[in-house]
Write a structure and sequence with these properties.
- The chain is built from 17 helices and 11 strands.
- It is α/β, with parallel strands linked by helices and 436 residues long.
- Strands 3, 4, 5, 6, 7, 8, 9, 10 and 11 form a 9-stranded mixed β-sheet that branches. A two-stranded antiparallel ribbon has the order 1-2.
- α8 runs antiparallel to α16 and α16 runs antiparallel to α17.
Length: 436
């Protein structure tokens, strides 16, 4: 997961000590690099084009690969925002110019790439054992004819992050097992707990940061989300979408949310101020919270299972190899190495993104990982247990557009008091115009 992937999802900056995960506040900037630069000394230069923070540089993997392969130089070219990166990638694919030897693809885009651009990428099943990833991850990058165009990097199994101290002040259970019990019935229980919090909350605090984030958590736990298995949009009638919308509207009406779109400046400020009691927490979110909340709230946050114990995935990316590259064989070997268990575990240790390769789950830096900032929450165990039970979701080419548009209207309900029916009408009209 990267900083500002589609939908404004945050990308954490973190450092793992052995078996213990802690955060470091760092911002990623593109390092660029000319694949044909004279400083390569006659060696093969592989350009890795990605977005946000994949963690390979932070984990020292590019340097390690170069040490193992003295004839290769790896240059990373990073775009901070995925929403800027993806249009550029499509343009490069269409023109055949400017592509990296290896490119990153966000999960919300992979279906569109599979459907419209698969023939432009190397079939990775010919060189990589795709069975090493969790099953649903491999399927996401698999074309109808069986070609696999992307090797899975990270995933975002869902949890719930919450402020122990604020729960205690509101008279709610603070122990992570007790909190899990309180929301064991699902997202309805989560809102019921929110009402109890609201009625006894410390002044100036809110139960959740964003009803839009909760909406995404609800939808992400369903196999059918925005598209049907026939490839047609079904978001207007999707039970998961309708349920998520109903619960978001209820949260807005009952003033359970602070109404802050995630990763924008007001959201970051709210975390620094300490006004948010819960955040729907895919694996990559926890250290983003740590980064923006700061040392004042160390040990006051905790992590427990998502409401209802329903497995869900929010986020994840892939590495792909364009067929038009100058060094396809070497690029494919780099992708295979970067997505192997040991390297995924190293990235988790360095920046906290959870592996999609099942082989990494038995490595100590993953299975024994804890988050001291979050009261030593055993995140390695929590996320590994959930990863294997996440449903195989039906992806669509415009999932990101649909989700972002709905989230915008949920924010309108929260911030402006827009009536649910009016907000839904505005969302559907905008979506239909955008996706045709």
């Amino acid at each position: 997961m990267r900083i500002t992937r589609t939908g404004g999802r945050g990308r954490r900056a973190a450092v793992l000590a052995t078996s213990v995960l802690t955060a470091s506040a760092l911002l990623l900037t593109g390092c660029g690099g000319d694949p044909d630069s004279p400083d390569s000394g006659g060696r093969i230069t592989l350009k890795v084009a990605d977005f946000g923070q994949f963690g390979y540089k932070e984990a020292g993997l590019f340097q390690k690969y170069q040490d193992l392969h003295p004839d290769i130089v790896v240059k990373e070219e990073t775009t901070a925002n995925e929403q800027d990166y993806y249009p550029k990638l499509l343009q490069q694919l269409n023109t055949g110019s400017g592509l990296g030897d290896v490119v990153g693809i966000e999960v919300a885009r992979v279906k569109e790439v599979v459907d419209t651009q698969a023939d432009r990428f190397v079939d990775l099943r010919e060189s990589i054992d795709v069975g090493q990833w969790v099953e649903w991850k491999a399927r996401q990058a698999t074309a109808p004819d069986g070609r696999v165009i992307g090797a899975g990097t990270d995933i975002g199994p869902m949890s719930l992050c919450y402020r122990r101290d604020l729960f205690e002040k509101a008279g709610l259970p603070a122990d992570r097992e007790k909190v899990a019990e309180a929301v064991a019935g699902g997202w309805e229980d989560y809102l019921a707990l929110g009402e109890k919090y609201r009625d006894n909350a410390p002044g100036g605090t809110y139960f959740m940061d964003s009803a839009g984030a909760m909406f995404n958590g609800v939808v992400s736990s369903s196999e059918q989300q925005y598209y049907g298995s026939d490839g047609k949009p079904v978001y207007k009638d999707s039970p998961a979408v309708r349920k998520g919308w109903r619960l978001a509207a209820e949260a807005a009406e009952k003033k359970l949310s602070q109404g802050l779109p995630q990763f924008q400046d007001p959201w970051k400020a709210a975390l620094r101020k300490g006004s948010v009691a819960t955040v729907v927490c895919p694996a990559w979110m926890a250290l983003q919270i740590e980064n923006y909340s700061g040392d004042d709230f160390r040990g006051k946050w905790d992590i427990t299972a998502a409401p209802g114990g329903t497995a869900a995935n929010w986020g994840g990316s892939f590495l792909a190899v364009p067929r038009s590259g100058k060094h396809v064989k070497e690029a494919t070997e780099l992708v295979e190495w970067l997505t192997a268990p040991e390297q995924q575990a190293a990235v988790f240790k360095a920046v906290g993104v959870f592996p999609s390769n099942r082989g990494a789950y038995g490595i100590a830096d993953v299975k024994d990982a804890e988050l001291p900032y979050f009261n030593d929450a055993p995140v390695g165990r929590i996320y590994a247990e959930e990863a294997g039970t996440i449903p195989v979701a039906v992806l669509g080419p415009k999932d990101g557009v649909i989700k972002d548009t709905i989230s915008t209207q949920i924010t309108s309900m929260e911030q402006r008091g827009t009536k649910p029916d009016d907000a839904w009408k505005a969302a559907t009209e905008a979506i239909d115009k955008a996706i045709g």
